[in-house]
Amino acid sequence: MKKKRNLTLIIGAVLTAFMLLFLLIGFFYTPYDPDAMNGAAKFAAPSLSHPFGCDHFGRDIFSRVLKGTGTTFFVAFATLLLGGTIGVLVGAFTGYFGGWIDEILMRINDVIVSFPGILLALVFIALLGPGKYNVILALGIVFIPSFARITRSEFLARKDMDYVKSARLMGVSHLRIIFVHILPNTVPSLLSMAAIGFNNAVLSEAGMSFLGIGVQPPDASLGRMLSESQTYLMTAPWGSVFPGLAVILLALGVSLLGDGLQKKGGN
Amino acid sequence: MKYLAKKFGSLFLTLLLVSFLSFFAFSVIPGDAAKSQLGTEATPERIEALQKEMGLDRPVLERYASWVTGFFHGDLGTSYSYLMPVGELIRDKVPITIAITVIAFLMILVVSIPIGIFTAQHAGGHLDRLIMTINQVIMSVPGFFIGILITYLFGLILKWFQPGAYVPISENFSGFIGYLVAPSAAIALPRCSMAVKMLRSSVLSQLDADYVRTAYSRGNSTRRVMYHHVLKNALIPVLTFWGMTIADIVANSIILEQVFSIPGMGNLLITSISNRDYPVVQGILVLIAALIIIINFVVDLLYGRIDPRIRVKD
Known about the structure:
The complex is a heterodimer. Chain A is mostly helical.
């Protein structure tokens, strides 16, 4: 069992590091301008000069995947940061203080959690309009309840523990107890939640961009590339395969990393 | 009976809350529906006249009240861009969503239950590890990409179905179902993986229980113990997951309809979002929300049936 546990963590870490490297390169350097159209290279098959081939405008798919992975990562990370921060704050305060606010917020939480995330995100997009930052906002809001719920249960379990009580007796303020005494203890469960959240965010962003209501041109986006290339699936399958692979590797790496960390922490 | 009444009360309240929130949200957004419908022909007088016609000059609460009354009479308002009752627009699309949901859910049940039990029985073995690894990979694949892969493999290479050649239900029922098998499979696959993972851990947690040993000691076969004793208990936590899965299938069919160019509810929703056709968006959302709430309600009731302890506790 021990050998397998490490394997999950290692594969996850390697995959994530690989994808991070990939998008870091894309941030500073792409072999071609990702938006430059080259009529002569229309639907060019993968070759040495275009490792992933070219799309229907003759744009280099390798460069576009490099940029698109960056966009997807940025959206997923920002979503996680937004939803995670607010969710943790809400969960920490409601779990620690309890009372009627806690009661009401958790009821609302229950309703939101029972809805599929993608549907809620669509509602927000319908209200806010499409676009990269609106996707972050929409998905971020959708992620709040799951973070709030897990943080709250951690705080509920810990707020009556002896170390908290003794801190109270020594006159430590509530805020300090929440952020300095209890919060660091919740990090392991928050980390695995973050990994699940990241996986969800990547898949949702790709899905929304695929529908055309996510990231808008000129930003390269993996989801959008997939929807554009679908028409030419028969003649140029590489237009779908490589962006799809990038999405899968990004989501898979982080979720394996989360799984590995969780197993390591549970030991 | 009290359990049922309580559940029914909260069902009704949630429905009312969801419809009010969506109605209110769509009322406060900037941009005037009357103005955007008139486009370049907008003059102050015409806008005012149209606002009156659409009832936009009345207060929100009053409009909501009349919307709810209409809802219970099957009237969901009129679409801005199609100039046609929303109910009529949606009605033709409902069978598609229902068919996809039913097919996908059946696929999940048929595939995940035997595999879930098998992997739990052989936990730690080579085959179990292989299946769980494949599972992990599938869970990271976006559903629409699976759809694209299925289109490529089964549609373009093997030619089992013709991509894009959707058959309306009114034309040919078996053709209609046949075309929906591929998108349903694309939706079902990632959720199958999750279902296997859930069921496996749920069955594993039951295997050490005393009643399993007792069942074996009374001479039951492995198969009988698994399917008659263990499964019944293992399904309790899985039931909630199934409820969520159905809701998830409905939501994801919106995306998969685009992949397989099916003119269903998802297609209508996406176009209406782009056109800012709010009566249609709201009609669809409230309908899906109602469906999800009712599913949760049914799951709650089933819970009480399967596990009487829950009824007593509430």
